[in-house]
Amino acid sequence: MSSLSIPTTSALLSLQLIPSSHPTVIKTLTRLSRPSLLSLALDWLDERNIEITAPYLADEEEEDPNDLYPPAHSLDALRGIYSELQAGKGTKRDVVDRVLEGDWREGINLYQLAMADMQYLYDHQASQKWTALRIVRLSSGADDTESTKLKSIPRFHPATFLRNLKREVLPDVKAHYNLDRHPTLPLLILRIFIVESPYNTSLALTSQNETTLDSNKVFYVAFPDESPFVYVSLNTSLAAPNQPISRLDTKSLRKLTLEGIAKAFSRPRERYKLESTHMSARNLTALVERRGGGRTNAAGGGWSIYASEKDDGSDNPLNMQLPTPTPSTPDKDDSGQNLDEENKENRGLKRRQPENERLVKRRKMVAGIRFGNIAKADDGKGIEQLTIRIIDPFPSSSGAHVLPDPLADELGALDPPPKKSKGRRSTIHLELEQDMVDDGEEDEFRPTIDMVFSGSHVFAGIRELVEAGVVDGERMPGWMTGEEGVSLGVVRQGRVRGWKGSGL
Amino acid sequence: MRPSPVTSTSKFDVDNPIAAQLDDEIASLQSQIASLKTRRKLQAATIISSHSSKSTLSRLRNSTQPPSNPATSVASQTLSPEESNPLFATSKLQTLHNQQNLYRFCGTITAFHIRDPDPNAVDSGNVLGLRIDVAASGKFITPYYIFLNKPFPDPQLLRVHRHTVPSYIPLAQLASRHLPHGKGAVAMNALKGEKRQDLTRFVRALRREIVAYHNRISVINCLRKSLQLDENSSTSRKGKGRERVIVDVSAADAEAKQLRIEWHDGRIGRCAVDGRGEVRKCVIIGEDGLRDRDNERAVEGGRIEGIADRLKEGIY
């Protein structure tokens, strides 16, 4: 530790130690489950990390007999201890104590803290709410050359990006940046840990004050591979109610970070900005599907059958076999007539049973047409909230684009019209209201209806309702199938305005 | 509650090893049945589209047709030969399918008409589907689809409704150039106009981008192969004397328009390739910060395919 601390604009170093007794450290580690804590400790002892995350090893001379966790003599011995712990049983508390008071008694450095935090993020996919933003090129008016114009994705070079981002951070806060590759998804996750201190030495971290080191000031930015989107998670829900930190603070930091991201992407004569895509979810897998680099971005709902690869090779033009009819090919109207005719024939005593079976089958087929291969309850790609505002004129007699009543009753999710609330959802309302500008209002009765569908997998739930016959699968509007790919939208004439599915 | 029986059977499997074994057997038999079925279908398709069976069928049809011809009034009640014999129907379908396949792999852009399942869809659900078949490294990959509809007040103007084109293909830019909408946009059949939509040009440009992307990817793979980058060190033990000079060649961005070349002595090169495959620019910088002009010239002098050969000339 240097004796002199000078305010500086550079970032915090990964090697900066935080004392093991610091509440943030203890909190971060105790959040983890025992198996992930042990694998984390073994990661710290791994060859690749050992230079940064070296444990406390025993010296030859002094050995304290009173030491509860006698330090190991070599790395291999320590690895053995943790592998043994992994095989055996015990409480989480023991492991945390062993890590903090034994093997890393001198402190946990920022890199280790970041690793622990990332581990928690991977263990609890739903712990962060991610908002997908599109990186859009700022048009300068003057037409560029063709080659640059045809570039759809700004190039992302992590080191350059970080260097640029560091430039945008204010000098009175210090941040620690850690980039990590998601274990399963094609994502690069940047963790920004902000410390309110002008110093980048250990002085900034030794303070026991909880406001300077606060899990509230951890921001995550995820960069999906080969895609013009970023996912940001800037408002963590971990904020304890009685924390002395003001809301405004986090808000301004959030704003600065967002602006910084766009600026860090930019280069001279190539400026970018971030644009909302009306999509946010807790599930990263769902986001990668809807706003990723693959084929599924603009092919949701029933269209997903075109995006998925056919295993049997029926997509291949060299395949001579006649395609077997998939659930999407039979015409709905025809099958409906057939069904009716068959029902008429079946008017016997045992009418009910076969009719029900046919009906169930038919509903399943309709659900298959509307939802395609997605929105299955076990695919793990669920978004947990869908907010829809309907601004269509109120139907006088027949309304094809209004929800069937049973669903509304069932979900009980019909929100009252907004009353300028200043609550948590104010940003949502702001976005919705922006969409409502330039509406040519006529004399019709146009109630504004907000609907919030929430659950662990909204579209799978709707699919199940269609299969169960609660929702009429044929009259159901398209936005209920998730094919528009938004989690927040304004519906006009039965269709989501603005984003329009393809995003073009 | 449909899921419950499924979970209970799987639990049953865990408990009972014999049941699990039987299940395995059933699964293997079923996969056998599936493979046999596909084989049968393939054979049937081959037979029915073969030349001799076609001629046999046409002879059969001719022999059945004359009696039905004079009685035109009865023809509406009796079935036409296509319907009376399933062979005719299948043969017709197969011919159509073969023709479609022929268009797909020769023309590579095919169009079809589908209906939007959304009851509120514009233009009563009429959607034009475009299928672009692309072959990459000797195989046809999953085709790319674009769906267009007509949501605008001018009923002739098209718009991209849905698509399965990945982000690294600049679809939005192509659409804004060739399928403009908004003020002043006119449909394709208009003879002139600043903002005339042109579907043909749009699809051609799009296909060009897609094919160029796949070509770049396969060229990068070829470069790796010719520089023997993907071979394990154990297999290439024989040529011990020839150490690898270039240790890595890879695409540096999503569109694969930039290449990253890495030398064993720490030199790193970047080169930019244009849409036609010509190397436009190249920078090679060593660890000492000095540029390697000779190799830069070698990389820049030609097309992307020749990079490896041109570099090799300098090395060996």
TrEMBL record, chain A:
Q: Where is the composition biased (Basic and acidic residues)?
A: 344-359
Per the record, the GO terms for biological process are: CENP-A containing chromatin assembly; chromosome segregation
List every stretch annotated Disordered.
Answer: 298-361
Q: Which Gene3D superfamilies match?
A: 3.10.20.720
Domain of life of the native organism = Eukaryota
What is the recorded name of this protein?
Answer: Centromere protein Chl4/mis15/CENP-N
Question: What is the originating organism of this protein?
Answer: Amylocarpus encephaloides
UniProtKB/TrEMBL annotation, chain B:
Going by the UniProt record, its keywords in alphabetical order are: Centromere, Chromosome, Nucleus
Which parts pass through the membrane? none
* InterPro entries according to UniProt: CENP-O
Q: Compositionally biased, Polar residues: which spans?
A: 62-81
Q: Where in the cell is it found?
A: Chromosome, Centromere; Nucleus
Q: Where is this region: Disordered?
A: 53-81
Keyword Nucleus tagged? yes
Q: Which GO cellular component does the record give, naming just one?
A: Mis6-Sim4 complex
Please provide an example of a Pfam family that matches this protein in its UniProt record: CENP-O
Signal sequence range: none
- Protein family: Belongs to the CENP-O/MCM21 family.
| Name recorded for this polypeptide | Cenp-O kinetochore centromere component-domain-containing protein
